[in-house]
Amino acid sequence: xxxxxxxxxxxxxxxxxxxxxxxxxxxxxxxxxxxxxxxxxxxxxxxxxxxxxxxxxxxxxxxxxxxxxxxxxxxxxxxxxxxxxxxxxxxxxxxxxxxxxxxxxxxxxxxxxxxxxxxxxxxxxxxxxxxxxxxxxxxxxxxxxxxxxxxxxxxxxxxxxxxxxxxxxxxxxxxxxxxxxxxxxxxxxxxxxxxxxxxxxxxxxxxxxxxxxxxxxxxxxxxxxxxxxxxxxxxxxxxxxxxxxxxxxxxxxxxxxxxxxxxxxxxxxxxxxxxxxxxxxxxxxxxxxxxxxxxxxxxxxxxxxxxxxxxxxxxxxxxxxxxxxxxxxxxxxxxxxxx
Length: 339
Known about the structure:
About 0% of the residues lie in helices and about 55% in strands. It has about 350 residues and is an all-beta fold.
């Protein structure tokens, strides 16, 4: 099986003379970010985020990367010039990140239950959305940029605001709807490419698909035997992929709601699924491995051990055809070129 080809690796930690990398302890208030270009071994140091990477986001244009950390730091990184643009800060861990379709806004979901919307041009905090839940776990903009969806979680094992999806109007931050149905923490949210549907994954072992216009549940999808950790629509909107802590990916036909191919990476819980084309999917897992799949055949096309620890985020840079992979406590973000 072919491997991904590494292009750039971002290491969040301390580079010491005579050693490749020595991680900073988690109590360190600010880590150093080192950019290592394999062809030149050039190193650049700047103030970065916590050494524990929790979330990634990339603009649709593929020009800007956001990296979220355990300590509430968000680093904005210019992918073209390979330098930091600015640092943002919020209380508590960053759980998820998403850029608006035009790249002018960045949403960050926080462990404090709030979702924040930042203006990318100057880093100004534009909105602070208080859900009332224990934690905001996931976030996604609608394709037209008018709506924001946040996945929520709490400690009560009942359906309700604690384990729901909240829809917000982006212009002024007004709440639009609370989508209730899940009976455990919502772990992921994703809009369909045309914006008509919203999918949510949950620790209740289900994926729920919602009609955005009516704000009603359209389908409940069940095949997983453990918590569903992530969900994504294909670029053409015809297929939905769900990744689970049972270690599998289930592909769904959106129109019928019927299960299709079942992908089995086979090495522990999955944390991320990301489409890189109409029939290609990239998965990341707790074992630190990233795999690329043909969704039509179910055949794995490439595999790489991208992290020492768990993969916490996978993003797709379509401009450079790179897969961006964020890790956990080893604090590194690596870029892998598709073969």
